[in-house]
Amino acid sequence: MNWTVVQRILGILLMMFSITMLPPIVISLIFDDHAWVPFVESFGLTFAAGLLVWLPVHRVRKELRLRDGFLVVAASSGPCWARSARRRCISQIRSRCR
After folding, report:
1. What angle do CA 10, 66, 50 make, to 5 degrees?
2. Helix 36-54 crosses helix 22-31 at what angle (to 10 degrees)?
3. What residues make up the domain containing 18?
4. CA dihedral 87, 91, 93, 98 (to 10 degrees)
5. 97 φ, ψ to 5°?
6. How many other CB atoms are there within 10 angstroms of residue 77's CB atom?
7. How many structural domains are present in the chain?
8. Chain centroid, CA 51 distance in Å
9. Which of 32, 50, 54, 67 is positioned for an S-S bond with 15, CB 3.0–4.6 A?
């Protein structure tokens, strides 16, 4: 398993994901609703985490093998699945309490 390749790709993915938080910042500033602060904090933390993961291995140029690709997909999509499952559980609990 090429851990350095996986680490490099996950760092790049984190930095790319942080860029998706820029449009909400711009829209919040346009409408002046003062909701831009959490987005700036999230952008900064996510970008810094991605940079810290990517920077030590940014010069590594190895081939991504099939099993490495599976690990990248599982590591990058796992938190999304956990978040959606948590939302679904919370919504089911709320609907039962009504």
Report:
1. 5
2. 160
3. 3-97
4. 160
5. -80, -15
6. 10
7. 1
8. 12
9. 50
Burial 7-43 (b: 16+ CB within 10 A, else e): bbbbbebbbebbeebeebbeebeeeeeeebeebeeeb
For 32, left (φ over 0), alpha (ψ -120 to 50), or beta?
left
Instruction: Please tell me the distance from the alpha carbon of residue 33 to that of residue 39, in angstroms, as a whole number.
Output: 13
The tokens for 29 are 């500033």
Q: Show the DSSP H helices in the chain as ranges.
A: 3-19, 22-31, 36-54, 66-97
Residues 14 and 51: their CA atoms lie apart, in Å, by 8
* Reported pTM: 0.72
Q: What is the block-wise mean pLDDT of the chain (98 residues), using blocks of 10 residues?
A: 87 91 92 90 93 92 80 72 60 66
